Amino acid sequence: MDSKHPQYSSGVHNESITAASTDLPPSGPVYKVYKRRFWGLAQLVLLNIVVSWDWLTFSSISTTAAQHFGVTESAINWMSTGYLFAFCVASPVVIVTLNKGGPKPAIITTSALLLVGNWIRYAGTRAGGGIFGVAMFGQILIGLAQPFCLSAPTRYSDLWFSDQGRTSATAVATLANPLGAALGELIDSFWATKPSDVPNMVLYITIIATIASLPSFFIPSHPPTPPSASSTPLHPTDHAPLLPALGHLFSTLEFYLILIPFSIYVGLFNSVSSLLNQILSPYDFSETEAGIAGGLLIIIGLISSAIISPLTDRYKHYLPTIRLLVPIIAVSYIALIFAPASPLGIVPSYVVCALLGAASFGLLPVVLEYLVEITYPLEPELGSTVCWVGGQLLGAVFILIQDALRAGEDARPSGNMRNSLVFGAVLAGVAVPGPLVIGCFGRRVRRGRVDMERGVELVGEPGDVGGGGGGGGNDGVEGETGKGRFGLGVRRYLSR
């Protein structure tokens, strides 16, 4: 098998072309990347921004929203919690949609649910001075939309981008989700300074969501030709059967070493983002200051990811990056216990939030792409969707637990969430060892997709994981119509 990387040259209609190795016969495959891929990527970015902004619409102004609806802040927390549970409910449908139809049906479904959910939520906020149940129903519909756009980036980047741009594409689309949360944290507290402002705030967000959703119906569904040798096939019949693929995924130890810490850290981040105002308010910090802290958490994280993702695309140092950032995240959650009560005021909380965001967002796209590498040739959306479900489910559970651990009115200060933060720090520490032991104890972890791009034959050896491992002999990918190493059928284009 040819060991050269795909070469790049300019092509017709200003489209860049990734050609197969010059050693291939004339009948060999030709790989292209198309400029139109950025239209779909931009649409995923817009949808992820809006859907996450919707999630934290009321969290950053929890006190004001509670006054508007005439409910407690714990009831407002259910706006976030119900949204996260809705994610889990929709996820089986998401896996089937992405596996059988690809990214475009998932993007269209996201847009439809966003349109309906946002307008229902606005009606519930406006009618009769605020009808909490109607607003909650709209919020749940929006929650059902999120997994369709949040699980799509790895599949979309695998379908449209070559190996030299996948991590960055996944990062841009995935991290648009926390960018939306940052916008919600920063902007909502300025739009709704008193209870009577809440309906107009929701209206503004609904209009933005409507505008962002409409282009979804016009993006292309797939490229005319694959961008590289390891890319997702363009036709559903070329995909591995879903149930056997899931069976193999759940029988891989390394998948759990990623799944468990991923779920814990995403869950903790979701919980802290939802409760940040309630974490800081007992220390007399305002909703605006809490919003700035939430904005720093996310904006610094986006800057960090913008630096780390291109470097990962270039050097493919997935595991060292993961091993570096995971302990930093755990230390940040420990520091968050002490920051709000610091005599230095709000500044320590800002610093801890910035550090936590930098490590968390720098890690996120690297982990998602590494998961695709070690589970190759399974479909990219399988591992990422399962991981996101774990994170959202634990996020909902952590919000409930940390809300229940809130101190009473007789505490000093009253209603503080120190016990909640200790709970989070303990979980963050428990999650550290998993990623650190990947590849240890004699288990050789292959990066199957990277090897495929380099023309390395995927031959399994005892103790191998990923890219042809799990058994002895040549049980790797055998051909375009043959069986793969797991008997799942071949789903990739090969250089021969």
Summarize the structure in words.
The chain has 496 residues and is an all-alpha fold. It has a single domain (31-436), classed as Growth Hormone, Chain: A. The chain has helices at residues 37-55, 62-69, 73-101, 103-126, 132-150, 152-160, 166-191, 198-213, 242-249, 253-280, 287-315, 318-338, 347-375, 380-404, 418-430, 433-436, 448-453; strands at 7-10, 16-19, 31-32, 444-445, 464-465. Strand 1 and strand 2 form a beta hairpin. Keywords: Membrane, Receptor, Transmembrane, Transmembrane helix.
Would you identify the regions where 5 or more consecutive residues have pLDDT less than 50? 1-22, 458-463, 467-496
Class based on secondary structure composition and strand pairing: mainly alpha
Please give the alpha-carbon distance between the first and last residues.
Answer: 6 Å
Q: What order do the SSEs take from the amino end to the carboxyl end, as H and E?
A: EEEHHHHHHHHHHHHHHHHEHE
The CATH class name reads Mainly Alpha
Main sheet: which strands, in order across?
A: 1-2-3
How many domains comprise the coordinates? 1
**Average pLDDT value?**
81
Largest sheet, described in full?
3 strands, antiparallel
The CATH topology label is Growth Hormone, Chain: A
Q: What is the CATH superfamily classification? A: MFS general substrate transporter like domains
Q: Portion of residues in helices?
A: 55-70%
Q: How many β-strand runs?
A: 5
Q: Strand share of the residues?
A: under 5%
Specify Rg, calculated over alpha carbons.
Answer: 23 Å
Shape: globular
Any idea what the CATH architecture is? Up-down Bundle
Number of separate helices: 17
